[in-house]
Amino acid sequence: MRIGRIELRHTKMELVSPFETSLGVERFEEHIIVRVDGDGFSGWGECVVEPAPSYSYETLGTAWHILKDFLIPGVLGKDFDSVGSALAANGWVRGHRMARAGLEAALSDAFARAAGVSLSAFLGGTRARIPVGVSVGLQPTTAELLRVIAGYLDDGYKRIKIKIAPGRDIALVQAVRREYPHIQLQVDANSAYSLDDIDMLRSMDDYDLQLVEQPLGYDDIFDHSLLQRQMKTPICLDESIYNTSDARAALALGSCRIINIKPGRVGGYTESIRIHDCCASQGVPVWHGGMDESGIGRAGNVALASLPNFRLPGDISATKRYYREDIVEPAFEVDPDGTMAVPSGPGIGVEVVMERLDRVTVRREEFRARSQESP
Ligand code: OSB
Ligand code: MG
User: Which ligand sits closest to the CA of 135?
Assistant: First the structure.
């Protein structure tokens, strides 16, 4: 496929309700939508950077710069026989994994469409439906938290994850467990604690949690190994795992027993699948995290999560949990049995509604290959 044109859009979409974590409160999601055109096919991807370097060091500004000045020139106007060969052209770029993942997602959609297969099939997915969960932000009161959870359980979600932060942790877990003794429940600290908090963290063992996600430093692997040795509940790493080498180190050290995979955080589908396979070979389950994606990113997440070692429900929720109106059709829905259908049409399998995408676009830039020289 000859890459003839690439377009970047900075989008801003209002969340149906503010999302509070130990990192702060979000009311809008701002991401970069990437469109790649080649040989008459279009591919779409979502770069999950945020405006500020909080969850990740990357920002909207750094990702735009890296895409515009390095990644796009690396592929524009060139002819590739596979996504892998296009990625190899930019293989020298270090870091900036969210920027790279956005471009890989768009290229993968385009190549899957050109091959006439779904993105799920293209990536090696094996399932037509996947079990899904929901990530519940910090709420103003415990009563409100219980009310929100009740609504999600009514919707069918198989697993509830609650965000915790210092001073808003064990009491929330106690309250949710008292109300729902048997649900699959997990907590996510987004790196809000240190080993000084070991007593509180160990007390999590009394509540039959599926896992505790990223309790310690965002770039730590060693302290997590000390904590895991003193906890029965599996630790799951999110922020600390950027690539397969981190995953191998974390598993060898005993820093976690489960890994959260987000293609944006690890640099794309290819690296995600490497981590997935590495964990599978060691009998370690993975699950698919989320970054409050629009339907474009969500479609990619659903496709990736259809691979076999994504054994726990993902943070892949229905469109209406995030947005009143999405930029794709049809909307993603959760069935009463807590599963979501994996789109089976070509590529991401959902249609981008251009008029809605235009409405949420705050900045747009287009890059065109010079017209092909005659041989
Ligand atoms: O830590 O998993 C996280 C959203 C933004 C940044 C980090 C995280 C999250 C979520 C939301 O938990 C997951 C979702 O998309 O539903
Ligand atoms: Mg997390």
Answer: 1
